Amino acid sequence: MMTTVADILKCVESIAPPYMKESWDNVGLLCGSRNTPVTKVLVALDPFEQVCREAADWGAELIVTHHPLIFQAPKSITDDTSVGRGIMLLCRHGISAINAHTNLDCTPGGVNDVLAVTLGLEHVQMTRPQGDPAYGLLRCGEVAEQSLECFLTTVKETLGCPGLRYVDGGKPVRKVAVGGGSCAGGMLEAMDAGCDTFVTADVKYNQFWDAQDLGINLIDAGHFYTENPTMPVLAAKLQAAFPGLEVKISENHRDCMKFY
Amino acid sequence: MMTTVADILKCVESIAPPYMKESWDNVGLLCGSRNTPVTKVLVALDPFEQVCREAADWGAELIVTHHPLIFQAPKSITDDTSVGRGIMLLCRHGISAINAHTNLDCTPGGVNDVLAVTLGLEHVQMTRPQGDPAYGLLRCGEVAEQSLECFLTTVKETLGCPGLRYVDGGKPVRKVAVGGGSCAGGMLEAMDAGCDTFVTADVKYNQFWDAQDLGINLIDAGHFYTENPTMPVLAAKLQAAFPGLEVKISENHRDCMKFY
Amino acid sequence: MMTTVADILKCVESIAPPYMKESWDNVGLLCGSRNTPVTKVLVALDPFEQVCREAADWGAELIVTHHPLIFQAPKSITDDTSVGRGIMLLCRHGISAINAHTNLDCTPGGVNDVLAVTLGLEHVQMTRPQGDPAYGLLRCGEVAEQSLECFLTTVKETLGCPGLRYVDGGKPVRKVAVGGGSCAGGMLEAMDAGCDTFVTADVKYNQFWDAQDLGINLIDAGHFYTENPTMPVLAAKLQAAFPGLEVKISENHRDCMKFY
Amino acid sequence: MMTTVADILKCVESIAPPYMKESWDNVGLLCGSRNTPVTKVLVALDPFEQVCREAADWGAELIVTHHPLIFQAPKSITDDTSVGRGIMLLCRHGISAINAHTNLDCTPGGVNDVLAVTLGLEHVQMTRPQGDPAYGLLRCGEVAEQSLECFLTTVKETLGCPGLRYVDGGKPVRKVAVGGGSCAGGMLEAMDAGCDTFVTADVKYNQFWDAQDLGINLIDAGHFYTENPTMPVLAAKLQAAFPGLEVKISENHRDCMKFY
Amino acid sequence: MMTTVADILKCVESIAPPYMKESWDNVGLLCGSRNTPVTKVLVALDPFEQVCREAADWGAELIVTHHPLIFQAPKSITDDTSVGRGIMLLCRHGISAINAHTNLDCTPGGVNDVLAVTLGLEHVQMTRPQGDPAYGLLRCGEVAEQSLECFLTTVKETLGCPGLRYVDGGKPVRKVAVGGGSCAGGMLEAMDAGCDTFVTADVKYNQFWDAQDLGINLIDAGHFYTENPTMPVLAAKLQAAFPGLEVKISENHRDCMKFY
Amino acid sequence: MMTTVADILKCVESIAPPYMKESWDNVGLLCGSRNTPVTKVLVALDPFEQVCREAADWGAELIVTHHPLIFQAPKSITDDTSVGRGIMLLCRHGISAINAHTNLDCTPGGVNDVLAVTLGLEHVQMTRPQGDPAYGLLRCGEVAEQSLECFLTTVKETLGCPGLRYVDGGKPVRKVAVGGGSCAGGMLEAMDAGCDTFVTADVKYNQFWDAQDLGINLIDAGHFYTENPTMPVLAAKLQAAFPGLEVKISENHRDCMKFY
């Protein structure tokens, strides 16, 4: 019996239940048809145009991504916009699109647990768990006490970042909070959890200064690099659930941003 | 040199300029690509699924409709909704979708002028012109004085309605306002223009009573039947502008609503 | 001891408790005085001007209606508006006005139960009950399986409609949802309840198409004809509760809308 | 030929044009019928229940007041509220109600000009004129330089106040701003106009302190006492315009508030 | 060990817990530093500029007031405004500012209990208690039945008012509601509690008329005079809690408003 | 005659008129007193706590900054927040604070003109001028055609950035738009002006991808490094206007953010 988009959606939603998402978010089946039989699944952080094209070239019937294909609901679907081009490309090739965004950030074993583990944190916990079973956005964990510089090396190497931006909060690194993507707004939550260090991305000028002011080490390791480590984990879970499928991580999607 | 979607959009916008639309409306190129070469254009009142399919079966690269393909901006494009099915079908076959809605209602020679002419009104005028050149929603015109029953026969026959719903305002018919589709909210405007009779559609209970209260004959001739006469006019204008194209009115789109 | 407006209000509120109303609705004593002694009560679907006049001519001290005398709160009470004329007429003759609107729709034994019974439905249930005791807007029930045409005949005859507007959803009639007045927005609720057919009123163009799209038979039997059957039931309940009163249904209030 | 409510409304609107009113205000014909013939007009500051009763007892067909009969648009007209009782009483006796409120405050020769003149101000001007011809809320004018105590005596005597509440701003009285009713919010406007003293009503605790802080003498002479002097002026204008009418100022309406 | 601002804040919050405040209110530490050692505390109804100066001149490190130093959050702190001048003066002298406003009104033993006791009410109760332990805004209590004039004398003498404004509701005084400051909006609550008389402040024209209409004696005894009696009580509680501090009530803060 | 804060404010407002600011911005005298005599002025990008302390230590009576001391209007001024600590420190030492923010960005010769000149752009223009004399946010100008890498070197060296983040839009650098601080939202405006390259700061993940999608080189050179070059220019203008003053740029304010 054929695996369908609906079957894989059900699996994705068991990994990252929709009720765990933020109220403003858009997750689930954002393009295509539940009944489409699936033989190949392309997994990628973003559903950008070149990812859609890679899926089409490979002959995939489904893409599974972290970021949503549609964020601002569009008044038209045309090739004037990159979102329109992506949707048209998917529809033309009969490819469906599923995503798990903030629900994947929050779920146990999701984006922030993977990030914590990748960075070698121990005794990892949610900083602010809710619900039963518990879920939540940020994770915190411990490392052997070390200098900030030493920890910066670890972050850069384990995540493969081309560069880091940071503020030195004036403390050695002992307890670290992590929030993949744009989580700098959780800085006080990280401090309340007793952390001396916070790894996130998309940090703005005033947020770096807030960190300086609060005395917390704040590291911007890049949106892509803090979230992409979850893609292999997600792909592996899908492959395990559907051994008959071909599940592949996008080969050409990497961060467009570079350091100089 | 090929005719493109952009060429036809330009023509549609010269017939029904976008600035004449209501602020809440959605018009123009709602799906597809400006650069697509066009050989066949299907014209229809609505971009419903079966119209999209007819376009695909016929090999059209473009549909031109009155009602918009997208009204509420969608958070997903899936076959769970009829709008999603329509968009997916169009994209799969590389068909673009253009529409002119309230701008076509308001433009000189548009929906309401066609309706007025179809009903045999003379000395047709806008009830509330604005701009220069003038445009506006409702039209009014004169008929030879006649009983309401006599005029009802004319309406039913000229528009081909299966039935009419009406209120007898207690006056003979001499000056008639028309507003194709859901225009009953313009009743006072029709009265202010000196009309004794108003032809529109989608009239609600309290609006029939308002007409009775105000002493105006109010006739609901059906949304489809008051707007569809404009489709051949629109098709003819496109054909005249692009003699090399095949322009056809949808053969299978008719009103789903029946009288008993 | 005299029966007062307050006594009858209490009875109406026991039949249709105010907490069952929609949040936007206006019900209860909308004009007059709780202490007025009552000998004659006129019952009608609407508190329109001619109903107020009928009450005055007959010498009633109270009208009890379904629709509210005041819907949009008025900034003035003048004879420039029909609402103002009605209020002035009532006040001039010392007549009070009570109504039960969406609470009467929702209450057990109210508008939609009466409509279901009138149409001969069996095993009548609320589609979406709430509260304890349960109340809710729509009702559904079963009929012997029959063609849509056959059921249309039943609707037209039992409700006395001058005509019906409908969409053929392509299914025989077996399970029917009913919602008197403007309830087409409940179409999905009717489908969720397993109904193949939905009887309501004030249906708009796009709602007929939604029904076609969803494959449900949708019948617009008229706002007046779907709600007016409840008036004799309401009058009888009031008469039973106050045997000493004269309770009468309006003799001249009928639908102003006609079919052609 | 009979004078009608419409004739008198037109006259009131020539005295106090509706476009001079504040956006939140409600003025004009708030109850009754434009076509009612009028022989007796009762003029009063407020359309309170006892004023309506006085009008009915006297046989007036019209009341003309400063404050509006309806301010918050009512969802019902019953004797549970004083507004409802007033409207019911007027309707029962076929009495119409006209008012001019903030338009009468602002118009040349209106409430604040009368107040300025009553207090003996000279070289009276609008503090912030707008439009052409000019209108505006506050008036300012000059008095012979005097002590605040001396001016307080003048205010109390000329307006007939039972008492005054005031703050001594520490300056002699030379230039005075006036705003009948609740105009303390115009304090800075009065200062900008170079005034050392401001006469208004309904002054609150923090506003007295603001005056102290700004060094302006602030006198609360009572809402009734600052506005009621305009009633004889208004009555005289109506009488002059309609010599055949009986125009009378309410005999029993006086302020309910007393000093101890 | 030194007493700090934080210690005194904790005490104030035990007297008037912050959760008892209205949602729009601003209470607690509004200026200064929790760690500042305190030896002198100035208590006053308002944190006006001259109170801040008195604190500075006396050498206080803290003022405790009823009204908040900051109500509308300021976009700048300059000497163009009295709030700015107050804040600058406090900061310059290192003085902190604590306040308890509507929480002090509502708490057992707070503003309204002190007012009730001062007026000699017996069997004092909250009119609308909430929470556990109970708190609430208004208080009501009984007096020996007496004429309104007699009670007016009591109010004026016990509160030391320069004058009263009132409406005679036409009833002898037996059960009295009190609400210090601007509480006239609670008039119906006072009536529901069975009160014939209501003592409050900042009463407006229409509220006096409402009282007349409802038949309740309404007395405006002044914002300052109804709330200031609580200041000695608050000062005594602070002194009792911190025997080593010098606690003093402001010597120069009195009402700026006078009667004439 | 002494120079006062008011004199310097007037000068700052002639350099950067307040009407040029964004509607949400807060500029001008945000702390202190217009009448304070000034002998020393400290100029800095930000009014952070250590800058306030530097001013106090140096004996300045005024700080002039780009970013506002108060952005979110505060409900309290305490040392719990860095804004509160800054205000308290300024007030304690009698130091006033003036700022020019988006008005300094937009004014001719302001932040973005300085940035353009610093980067060596020629034929510098506003991308979207408004008003007369013209002002506007972004600037664009030309450079000798060069590779992106070559231009990156120029940016890094002339601004003294510790690092850059960028997207390669696939074009050589010929026409460059600049917007100091968080101006990535102006990307389309930069493209409309014909620019191939855009230098700004605080760029987020999706904005880098938008740039890639649009084919524009986008360079994040840091909020501090793109705005701070204007501080010497501003200081020089103040010094020129007030030769008798000591005007100094903060010696210890530098960006807290570092690259790794």
Structure description:
Chain A is an alpha/beta fold and 260 residues long. Chain A contains 10 helices and 13 strands. The longest helix of chain A is centred in the middle third of the chain and has 12 residues, at 148-159. Chain A starts with a helix and ends with a strand. Chains in contact: A-B, A-F, B-C, C-D, D-E, E-F. Chains C and D meet through strand 1, strand 4 and helix 3 of C and strand 1, strand 4 and helix 3 of D.
Outline of the structure:
The structure is a homohexamer of 260-residue chains. With 260 residues, chain A is α/β, with parallel strands linked by helices. Helix content of chain A is 35%, strand content 22%.
Descriptive terms for the model:
homohexamer, 260 residues, alpha/beta, six-stranded mixed beta sheet, five-stranded mixed beta sheet, 10 helices, 13 strands, 35% helix, globular
